[in-house]
Amino acid sequence: MFNVDVENNIISLSKGDTGAVTIAVGGYSFGENDRALFSIKAGNGQIVKQKAYELVNNKFTVTFFNADTKTLAPGGYSWDVRYVINPYYNENGDIVDGDQVLTPNLPMQCNLIQIVGDI
């Protein structure tokens, strides 16, 4: 099961399922090097999954693969997006900072639901 409640910005998915959601950004014009950082966080604010996405025409598509959620415990998480202008990378290729980091809104809800049975 994969569901996005667009009105309330709630993402719900079954543990291990796949899905995708496109997020459009208004009010800013991004350059080709700028990136969107999509994060899923535990209740204590710790990042449990994070992915960087290229912005194309001021939008990007977040993809959830089986491996992204299969090791996470079912329950409530939050998600957010930060936009990194001219990102800086570490030796592993992870974004660690940028010339500017924009956080446009508060964290939103992400529900990870336990599946019953096997595929």
Search tags:
119 residues, mainly beta, two-stranded antiparallel ribbon, 55% strand
Q: What's the topology here?
A:
Blueprint: E1 2-5, E2 10-14, E3 19-24, E4 35-41, E5 47-54, E6 59-64, H1 66-69, E7 75-89, E8 95-102, E9 108-113
Describe this structure in words.
With 119 residues, this protein is mainly β. 3% of the residues lie in helices and 55% in strands. It is built from one helix and nine strands, in the order ββββββαβββ. The chain has one helix at 66-69, and strands at residues 2-5, 10-14, 19-24, 35-41, 47-54, 59-64, 75-89, 95-102, 108-113. Strands 1, 2, 4, 5, 7, 8 and 9 form a seven-stranded mixed β-sheet that branches. It has a two-stranded antiparallel sheet with strand order 3-6. A hairpin with a 4-residue loop joins β1 and β2. It starts with a strand and ends in a 6-residue tail after the last strand.
In short:
By secondary structure, this protein is mainly beta. It is built from 1 helix and 9 strands. It is 3% helix and 55% strand.
Level of helix content? under 10%
Order of helices and strands: EEEEEEHEEE
Major beta-sheet overview: 7 strands, mixed
Q: Which structural class do the helices and strands define?
A: mainly beta
Specify the oligomeric state: single chain
In terms of DSSP E residues, the strand content is over 45%
Average pLDDT across residues?
Answer: 91
Q: How many helices?
A: 1
- How far apart, in Å, are the first and last alpha carbons? 13 Å
